[in-house]
Amino acid sequence: VPKKCQKAREHFGTVRTQLESLKTKFPTDQYYRFHEHWRFVLQRLVFLAAFVVYLESETLVTREAVAEILGIEADRERGFHLDIEDYLSGVLTLASELARLAVNSVTAGDYSRPLRISTFINELDSGFRLLNLKNDSLRKRYDGLKYDVKKIEEVVYDLSIRGLNKEATVGAGGEK
């Protein structure tokens, strides 16, 4: 995994070069006029950066760190920046991928990873519940997080009732 993460980080150099070029194609005060042209790509890049950071450290990458990885600004006032909604959308995509990783980890015989993913996703869900999301695409993506939480909880539960993970067994109800 560390070698794959390093390889992915090398590709972000190309991304930074491309984004530098993009910045020169429109006036800096018209960012939102053209935002829809790169919105999806930025969300996907946030997901990729967040996934690499998660695989390296099992932590959530900050918006500022993603902006640094991509070579763009975190603050709106400084020009081409990482919009907060694009960041949040990318993080929600990370949650979906981690739900898949939990299932695949069990298949590969790694029974402790789903518990760690569960803890991370539950903390993420708690953070998103604090937000007052309006009825837009971000809200719909957040609604998908509930299904990801449920999917991961089912994996952890299955591990605990089968006794395949002592940590999951202890964390799920106390007794072995």
Automatic annotation (TrEMBL):
Keywords annotated in UniProt: Cytoplasm, DNA-binding, Endonuclease, Hydrolase, Magnesium, Metal-binding, Nuclease, Nucleus, RNA-binding
GO biological process: RNA metabolic process
Main subcellular location of this protein, as a coarse class: cytoplasm
SUPFAM superfamilies according to UniProt: Translin
Name of a matching Pfam family: Translin
Chain residues that bind Mg(2+): 97
GO cellular component: cytoplasm; nucleus
Alphabetical list of InterPro entries matching this protein: Translin (IPR033956), Translin_C (IPR016069), Translin_fam (IPR002848), Translin_N (IPR016068), Translin_sf (IPR036081)
Superkingdom of source: Eukaryota
Localization per Swiss-Prot or TrEMBL: Cytoplasm; Nucleus
Similarity comment: Belongs to the translin family.
Oligomeric and partner information: Ring-shaped heterooctamer of six TSN and two TSNAX subunits, DNA/RNA binding occurs inside the ring.
Record function comment: DNA-binding protein that specifically recognizes consensus sequences at the breakpoint junctions in chromosomal translocations, mostly involving immunoglobulin (Ig)/T-cell receptor gene segments. Seems to recognize single-stranded DNA ends generated by staggered breaks occurring at recombination hot spots.
Protein name as catalogued: Translin
Protein's organism: Anhinga anhinga (Anhinga)
Gene symbol of the encoding locus: Tsn
